[in-house]
């Protein structure tokens, strides 16, 4: 189930980037980023109401964990900027490469509280395939 969910997330990102990018081209990068996140806020509030969940802030949560919200803002903003110059497929491919490299480093060193998962050669093979695909996509 989690594998399917991860593939579904990838499909949603492939849909989201062009939608966000086109909106950004029409109303501007910063305004689009605000609109995108306001719509996201409304959507999650609706989900909370439907599920009858409450927003709880636990004491003792390290402040750096809240930085993911800012990272999300910059991710949307930078993908909108990249989309205008590169299009959807190259933006997504390069994003995948960046995610792959960062996740390998995070896993290998156990950063951000993750359990250590040492780098294995099979991950290098996968990274080389991704990189090769991106090179082919950008050259041709």
Description:
With 140 residues, this protein is mostly helical. The protein has two domains: 1-86, no CATH class; 88-140. Helices cover 78% and strands 0% of the residues. The protein contains five helices and no strands. The longest helix has 26 residues, at 2-27. The mean pLDDT is 94.
Short description, anyone?
The protein is mostly helical and 140 residues long. The chain contains five helices and no strands. One of its GO terms (cellular component) is plasma membrane.
Number of domains: 2
The residue ranges in which pLDDT falls below 50 over 5 or more consecutive positions are none
Series of secondary-structure elements, N-terminal to C-terminal: HHHHH
What is the CA-atom radius of gyration, in angstroms?
18 Å
Structural class: mainly alpha
- Which of globular, elongated, flat, extended, rod-shaped describes the shape? globular
Instruction: Find the count of extended strands (DSSP E, 2+ residues).
Output: 0
Percentage of helical residues? Answer: over 70%
> What's the pLDDT, averaged over the residues?
94
């Amino acid at each position: 189930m989690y594998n399917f969910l991860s593939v579904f997330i990838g499909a949603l990102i492939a849909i989201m980037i062009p939608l966000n990018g086109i909106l950004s081209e029409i109303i501007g990068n910063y305004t689009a980023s605000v609109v995108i996140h306001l719509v996201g806020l409304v959507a999650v509030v609706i989900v909370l109401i439907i599920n009858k969940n409450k927003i709880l802030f636990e004491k003792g949560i390290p402040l750096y964990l809240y930085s993911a919200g800012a990272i999300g803002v910059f991710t949307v903003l930078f993908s909108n900027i990249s989309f205008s110059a590169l299009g959807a497929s190259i933006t997504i491919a390069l994003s995948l490469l960046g995610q792959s490299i960062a996740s390998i480093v995070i896993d290998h060193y156990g950063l951000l509280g993750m359990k250590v998962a040492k780098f294995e050669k099979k991950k290098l093979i996968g990274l080389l395939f991704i990189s090769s695909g991106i090179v082919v996509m950008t050259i041709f």
